[in-house]
Amino acid sequence: MKKGYITGKGYIVHTAPYVTVVGGVNMDIGGWPSEVPVDRDSNPGAVRMSLGGVGRNIAHNMSLLGLDVRMVTAFGDDLYAQKIAASCGELGIDISQSPVIPEVTDSPIENTQESAQENAETETASQQEAQTETAATGKVEIATEDFEGSSDPENAERKYTYTYQMPTITIEGNEEAQDKIQKDLNAYVETFLDSINNSDFGTVYEGEMSGMTSYEELSFQVIRADDKVISVVWGNEGYNQGAHGWYIQDYRNYYTQTGEKITFDSLGNGFRDKALELVTKKAAEMQATDDCFFPDYEKSIKLVVLDGTENMDTIYQEIYGADIAGTGNGPASPTFSITGDGFVFESGQYVLQPYAVGIIDFEIPASDFGDALAADIFKQNIR
């Protein structure tokens, strides 16, 4: 007897056989150095991306065998997920039952609104609950507002995203100091946005890395805020088509009563020299136990003790010589913060140590400075 299918009847449905794969998808990113790698340093090399995930690989191979393949997985809403989904479509893999999961952040953004910019970027703003550091007197408050944006979707030559935090400071009963500090904070954010909008940031180049989107994030954190000192730090993290990304911390310290920036000279005669002495001592102790610095790190200690009044061209010439120091580096950025009981001096990436070591902090109690610290910015029992 011949076997067949009755067609045309609503109560009999013929579905061709198919295979369902339930599993994961991901983008494999592999990198390897061009030569023998140098320990604890950046090494030139190549990076290659390929579609991966056990589930996706099985579905891929079954599709090449001519099978009807359905895949159930979860996709993100990023560029890599779009590449994987497009590949599935080219292979004939049905992913119609696979959801796209939107990005979830630790701090949900509310009251989002879009605004057009001159460079056709889109930017959304949100008002978050205030990030507040309040002294015992309750007179200093600093709140932050989150913003995000991206390149023009119609511009194929540049592709990037960015986020930043905009702080607002309130000093009760002292608008003059408040406005002075706020103006300086505003200027920092404006410089950040200008560096994105008016540069080649996010330029898409041909080659293996061209599919990766550049990004930059500017965060803001309060270290100390009371009736004597306001000490904050900007954190700048990003990636722009290079061998690796970056993370930079930029400090700002102010006298609360006047709004003036805190300099070493204002802290006391001999403060800079004492700071150099103390940082040098701590660095030597670390090198003896961890061997974490460059062999000639001592000559660069000056780059760890900066208050923002220095000219970087002058310092580089003192350290490296006029022939290789370069020009046009401009003023220095402060490399220290002020806590409730002392100072923290930072050695950023490539200053005293290789990139792979990360950022190194030198914590020094206020009491270690002795008579070199004359400014009344700590409790008496600390000094």
Summarize the structure.
The chain has six helices and 14 strands. It is of the alpha+beta class.
Structural commentary:
The protein has helices spanning 54-64, 79-91, 175-197, 264-267, 271-290, 312-320, and strands at 19-22, 26-33, 45-52, 69-72, 113-116, 122-127, 140-150, 160-171, 214-225, 229-239, 246-255, 336-338, 342-347, 360-365. It is α+β, with helices and mostly antiparallel strands. The chain starts with 18 loop residues before the first strand and ends in an 18-residue tail after the last strand. The chain is elongated, with a radius of gyration of 28 Å. A seven-stranded mixed sheet has the order 5-6-7-8-9-10-11, with helices on one face. A three-stranded antiparallel sheet has the order 12-13-14, covered by helices on one side. It has three domains: 19-91, no CATH class; 113-261, 2-Layer Sandwich (Heat Shock Protein 90), CATH 3.30.565.40; 265-372, Heat-shock cognate protein, ATPase (Actin, Chain A, domain 4).
Keywords:
Heat Shock Protein 90; three-stranded antiparallel beta sheet; single chain; Actin, Chain A, domain 4; 383 residues; alpha+beta; seven-stranded mixed beta sheet; elongated
- Outline type: elongated
Strand residue content: 25-35%
Gyration radius, in Å: 28 Å
Q: Supply the CATH superfamily name of the largest domain.
A: Fervidobacterium nodosum Rt17-B1 like
Number of helices: 6
Global mean pLDDT? 82
CATH class of the largest domain: Alpha Beta
- The helix/strand order is EEEHEHEEEEHEEEHHHEEE
- Count structural domains: 3
Q: What name does CATH use for the topology of the largest domain?
A: Heat Shock Protein 90
- N→C terminal distance: 102 Å
Strand order of the largest sheet: 5-6-7-8-9-10-11
Number of strands: 14
* CATH architecture identity of the largest domain: 2-Layer Sandwich
Largest sheet: 7 strands, mixed
